[in-house]
Amino acid sequence: GAVVSQHPSWVICKSGTSVKIECRSLDFQATTMFWYRQFPKQSLMLMATSNEGSKATYEQGVEKDKFLINHASLTLSTLTVTSAHPEDSSFYICSARDAATGDSPLHFGNGTRLTVT
Amino acid sequence: DAKTTQPPSMDCAEGRAANLPCNHSTISGNEYVYWYRQIHSQGPQYIIHGLKNNETNEMASLIITEDRKSSTLILPHATLRDTAVYYCIVRATNNNDMRFGAGTRLTVKP
User: Fold this and answer.
1) Which of B34, B97, B103 sits opposite A46 (nearest CB)?
2) B44-59: average pLDDT
3) What's the whole-number mean pLDDT along residues A76-100?
4) What pLDDT, in 10s, does the model give residues A3-37?
5) Which pLDDT belongs to residue B24?
6) Are B98 and B34 in contact (CB under 8 A)?
7) Which residues of B touch A (CB under 8 A)?
8) How many CB atoms lie within 10 A of CB B102?
9) According to the model, what pLDDT value does residue B95 have?
């Protein structure tokens, strides 16, 4: 089945530094990928929609200059958390849909746990 | 605005069927019902989806009422590994994104 791979699975960084998270579709092409954030004991919240070859679309309240998204190819999207602060500590999850199939479900990566110290 | 309503938690005995309800009274004609589950500290796992007919796969069955205002996910023989948060989501085919509600935390007990 379709696989979405995220890297790294966990990362610890110091406050003020930037962290890049990669999301790859391994056996399919994805013109659109999605980034979610999940705080403890809460549901997934959609942060942004990443479109291959164009600018990402951010949800209300998500700072585009803080969460930089690049979708340079049909199989890779990256999320960079810039100038990270402890409140950015969260579980970040990406998802993608196979562009070749019409009504197909989203496939999710296994998430990246970010801890900012 | 939440498009679906699910009970916050349910328990099920191991080996018994787990029936998870979902209300989606404002569902539109072009919206599918999707079910995902999330085991602790993992990404959501796709289970099943349907439009109006009942669906079955190797993981579960999906029963959608005739008026499409509610559905039930059935895990026929729950195991301890089925303990997870189960999310019911409605999504139109022309919408790319998928938005999660609070889900139902299913605990399968020995």
Assistant:
1) B97
2) 95
3) 94
4) 999 999 999 999 999 999 999 999 888 888 999 99
5) 96
6) yes
7) 32, 34, 36, 38, 41-46, 49, 87, 93, 96-103
8) 15
9) 66
Q: What percent of chain A has pLDDT over 90?
A: 76
Radius of gyration of chain A (CA): 14
Provide the pLDDT for residue B2.
57
Under a CB-based contact definition with an 8 Å cutoff, are residues A71 and A80 in contact? Answer: no
End-to-end CA distance of chain A: 37
pLDDT-wise least confident of A95-104, B19-28, B42-51: A95-104
Q: Cα-Cα-Cα-Cα dihedral of A99, A101, A106, A107, to 10°?
A: -80
Which residue of chain B is at minimal alpha-carbon distance from A113? B41
- So what's the pLDDT on residue A62? 96
Query: What Å distances lie between residue B81 and B16, B35, B37, B75, B78, CA to CA?
Result: 13, 17, 11, 12, 8
Q: Which one, of A70, A66, A74, lies nearest residue A56 by Cα?
A: A70
Cis peptide preceding B21, ω within 30 of 0: no
Q: Which of B89, B100, B104 to mutate to test the interface with A (most CBs of A within 10 A)?
A: B100
